[in-house]
Design goal:
mainly alpha
Amino acid sequence: MELLHAEPALFTGLVFLFSLLVGSFLNVVIHRLPKMMGAEWHVQCAELRGEMLPDAALYNLAVPRSACPQCGHQITALENIPLLSWLWLRGRCSSCRTPISARYPLVELLTALLSAAAAWKWGVSVPTVGALLLIWTLVALAFIDLDTTLLPDSLTLPLLWLGLLFNLGRHFTNLPDAVVGAMVGYLVLWSVYWLFKLATGKEGMGYGDFKLLAAIGAWLGWPMLPVTLLLSSVVGAAIGIMMIVLVKHDRRVPIPFGPYLAGGGLVALFFGADLTQAYLGQF
C-alpha cells in the first residue's frame, strides 16, 4: 500500500489493467441482463395466466459460457483477453470467421480509461473505490439503455443506496446534500414526465431515467444535478436532431436518454465542481 501511495502511476496502471477485465464482464452484463429480465417477465406472465412452463436451461451472468451466436463456438480463455484477443482474432470468430462487433473492446477500453482517470484523481482512497463502482455501473446502464431502452432496477436502485452509503463518510458530498440530490433528481424528471404527458398525451421518458438521476444525485449531491441535466439535455438534443436530419431517424421511435444522463453524471463526477465554479465566477 505504501508503494501504491508513493507511485500513483503504478496504481493507475494497475487499475487500468484490472478495469479491462471489469469491462469484459460488463459486456456480459450488458448482453445478458436484459435477456434475464425478459425471461423473468415471461415466467411471471405465465404464472398470472395459470400456466406451467417447462424448466428452462440455466442462464445467468455466469453460465453458460460465452459463445459465438452464429456457430456456437465456445470462447476460450485465450480468446477472451480484453482488447488483445479481439485484435489477435482481427475482429472475427476463430471458428466461422463471423465479424465480432468492435463495441466489445470499446466498452473494455472506455471502462479502463475512465477507471484509470478516477485512480489518478483520487489515488489510493475510499473515494476511488466509490468512483469505480459508479463508473462501472453507469457504463453498463448506458449501453443497456442504448440497446433496449431499459434501465434495470437491479442496477439503478443499488447504485442509489450505495451513493448514500458512501456519503455517510462525506466522500463526494455531505449526507444531507446526497439525500436531497436523490429526491430532487427523481422529482425533477418525474415532473417533466407528467408535464409532457399532460400536454401531449405521450410518455416522454421512462421511470428508469428518474431513478438514474436520483442515483447520480445520491452520489454527487444536488449541486451537481444542474450540470448533469444541462450536459445530458444539450448533448441528447443535439444528437437527436442530427439523427432525425442526417439519418432520417423515425421521430416515433424513442431515443434513450440514459446514456446522456450517464455521460453527464461522469462529467459531473470529474469536473462538476470546476464547471460550477467557473460558471458562478462569471457573476
